[in-house]
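Handout, section B. The chain below has 282 residues.
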Amino acid sequence: ITAATEAWDRGPAALPKPWRPQKPVLPVEGMRNVLITSALPYVNNVPHLGNIIGCVLSADVFARYCRLRNWNTLYVCGTDEYGTATETKAVEEGLTPQEICDKYNAVHTDIYRWFDISFDFFGRTTTPSQTRIAQDIFQRLLARGFLLEDTVEQLRCEGCQRFLADRFVEGTCPFCGYEEARGDQCDKCGKLINAVELKKPQCKLCKGVPVVKPSRHLFLDLPKLEERLESWLEKSWAAGDWTANARYITRSWIRDGLKPRCITRDLKWGTPVPLDGFRDKV
């Protein structure tokens, strides 16, 4: 408080000159370099005030604070444009996924500009550079033995000739009997659902009855990292500033044992899997 009072008494003339980072913003040796990212908003809707408050506004406030401190600050965000949500919206509006992304990226960009959110870079996940980065990460995981293959049971619509992602199927909840449960969760009882557990499942696209069929997928072999992760966590918990909630959730994951995590999907709209045998997936 004393330091703040003295700085106030000296007035604006005593303040250091504002730091103007180069473009693009890159780390500068000898400076405090701060990278700020906020959750990528889905591109299949018009953002409302709640989205902005819960997603980009807090990061924007922190970015402005960092710049006032003359820290070399990079604040990045962008629209999340791949996946089932985009395909579903495209079907609803009778557009292609790319047309949906172009339409709503422009809407998002205009709204954040109106609110004067101070992004240094606002991008998209449907760019060639994003594809190169994602596939490079994939190839490095593969080369180091951190990917494994397994078969999972999924619902397939023979009428549409496609495996159905969770959002493309609905049916009766196996827990509470609600007749409009989604393939991933029941909105009435709130329980998570595996789509093959649904009673009377129905394809949302053609209203046909899907069948259960096996599909090969690639998984991130998280159990292989468990021992190294546990060692790192002990050091980080001791030295870092973790919230009680973050510690509790992380401890529960470690206590229950990490499980392989599926990273491929039977979709058309997404980053292509660069591996023979899986090129029909994203």
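Note. The chain has a mean pLDDT of 91. Compare this with the example in section A.
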